[in-house]
Design goal:
about 300 residues; mainly alpha; Rhopdopsin 7-helix transmembrane proteins
Length: about 300
């Protein structure tokens, strides 16, 4: 069967019954506010993450497994601002304007990009936690090359899973729900692995603090604490931004009202905000990145 994007879009619309409906003026105002917020944050997320990627690329000392993973997270946030957020804005504006064709296509693209980039972010954060644990307990186990291969592997895997989930949306609910269950299981696995990695990291820190301070083989705990807490801040931003959205999805199945839809739109805008805040966090917590970004800005505006 040949690939036909319009055919898939049509089947997606039939499956989700994605068509604009009559909404209250309050819903339209809230939706427009979410669109304005998202439209303002999108270019800032693109520029901010572009600076982070340039800083890591230009500074050879930052080309380590942990910073390459950070670059992978910045790439995800960069394309979230470039693709996911504009599609969301078009999707919701079409909803307000009651343009069924645009609404349907933008809904499909928002679903694809949103699911892919959020899943990839979750995976990268999990790998970052595991990398810190392995590095502290066994030395440099993950190399830059292995990290890049691992990142590409999960990119390809998630593209296939997202495509399969969307492509099977026109089939009976069982086929669609299988892929939904796969994503939920993967999310639960990531939570478990991340928690397990951090548990072991703090066990290592506690053991180190109980060691004799004159031990020449003791690792630089101050340095590792800084990187560990940076990753935890990234995880905290991810959780804080996604938790209201997940709660709104849960409410979605039990409450049928315009207020529910309006809350969902605002929560979705909050989810996208993490792509804007992450670059600010990197510059605040990591001196090397902050200095490199400053150098790039000076060259751009002083030459």
């Amino acid at each position: 069967m040949s690939f036909n994007s319009s055919h898939i879009s049509g089947r997606w619309c039939l499956f989700t019954l994605s068509k604009p409906s009559e909404q209250s003026s309050a819903y339209e105002h809230v939706t427009l506010a979410a669109c304005v917020l998202t439209a303002l944050l999108a270019p800032m997320a693109v520029v901010g993450n572009a600076f982070i990627l340039a800083a890591i690329w230009r500074n050879p000392s930052l080309r380590t497994p942990s910073y390459v993973l950070l670059a992978g997270l910045a790439i995800t946030d960069f394309f979230t601002g470039l693709l996911s957020q504009p599609c969301f804005v078009v999707y919701k504006l079409a909803d307000v304007a009651k343009n069924g064709e645009v609404f349907c296509t933008a809904s499909l693209l928002t679903e694809c990009f949103g699911l892919f980039f959020s899943s990839l972010t979750f995976v990268v954060i999990t790998i970052m936690a595991v990398e810190r644990w392995l590095h502290m307990s066994r030395g440099s186990l993950l190399t830059v090359r292995r990290v890049v291969v691992l990142y590409i592997f999960f990119v390809v895997l998630l593209i296939l899973l997202v495509f399969a989930r969307i492509y099977n949306s026109y089939r009976p609910y069982e086929a669609y729900n299988v892929f939904t269950a796969i994503f939920l299981f993967a999310a639960a696995l990531c939570v478990f692995v991340t928690a397990f990695a951090y548990f072991n990291v703090f066990q290592i820190i506690r053991r180190h603090q109980n060691q004799v301070q004159t031990n020449e083989n003791a690792i630089d705990m101050k340095k590792y604490k800084a990187t560990i807490f940076t990753i935890m801040y990234i995880l905290a931003i991810f959780v804080v931004s996604y938790l209201p959205y997940l709660c709104s999805l849960l409410v979605f199945y039990f409450v049928k009202s315009n207020k529910r839809l309006a809350t969902y739109n605002i929560c979705a805008a909050v989810v996208f905000s993490s792509s804007f805040f992450n670059p600010l966090l990197y510059c605040w917590r990591i001196k090397e990145i902050r200095d490199s970004v400053r150098s790039i800005i000076r060259k751009l505006f002083c030459n």
